[in-house]
Write a structure and sequence with these properties.
The chain is of the alpha+beta class and 109 residues long. It has a single domain, classed as Ribosomal Protein S5, domain 2, CATH 3.30.230.10. The chain is built from three helices and four strands; from the N terminus they run H-E-E-E-H-E-H. The chain has helices at residues 8-17, 51-66, 89-107; strands at 19-22, 26-32, 39-43, 74-80. The protein has a four-stranded mixed beta sheet, with helices on both faces. A hairpin with a 3-residue loop joins strand 1 and strand 2. Helix 2 (51-66) crosses helix 3 (89-107). The longest helix has 19 residues, at 89-107. The termini are far apart.
């Protein structure tokens, strides 16, 4: 099953209507979904580097989220901030786990 958001309109809807959670390197937007499975999109700005750097970051994030217990019934956008491209894989993993824990604490009380 493909859990990825692909359309620009989906991203824009989540930016406007979603709950936000922050860490130093990421912002997570989440909005309730009528579907049972979750969908996630990754936003990495061109300001963060050339295409190979941005694609590497997105591949790493997809791999981390694949093994993470993500709450269902939500659509997510994980937006990278400036320093996230320079992080090692383990640091990225800790950051992503931390932001989803904050989301669970804020929204799923």
């Amino acid at each position: 099953m493909d859990h990825r958001l692909k359309k620009n309109s989906q991203f824009n809807f989540i930016y406007k209507k979603g709950e936000r959670v922050y860490t130093d390197n990421f912002t997570l937007f989440a909005v309730k979904s009528k579907f049972e499975i979750y969908k996630i999109g990754f936003s990495v700005s061109k300001k963060l580097g050339k295409a190979n750097k941005r694609n590497l970051l997105k591949r790493r994030l997809r791999e981390i989220v694949k093994n993470l217990d993500v709450p269902n019934h939500f659509n997510y956008v994980l937006m990278a901030k400036e320093n996230s491209t320079s992080l090692e894989f383990d640091s990225l993993k800790k950051e992503v786990y931390k932001i989803f824990d904050r989301f669970k604490a804020k929204v799923l009380k």
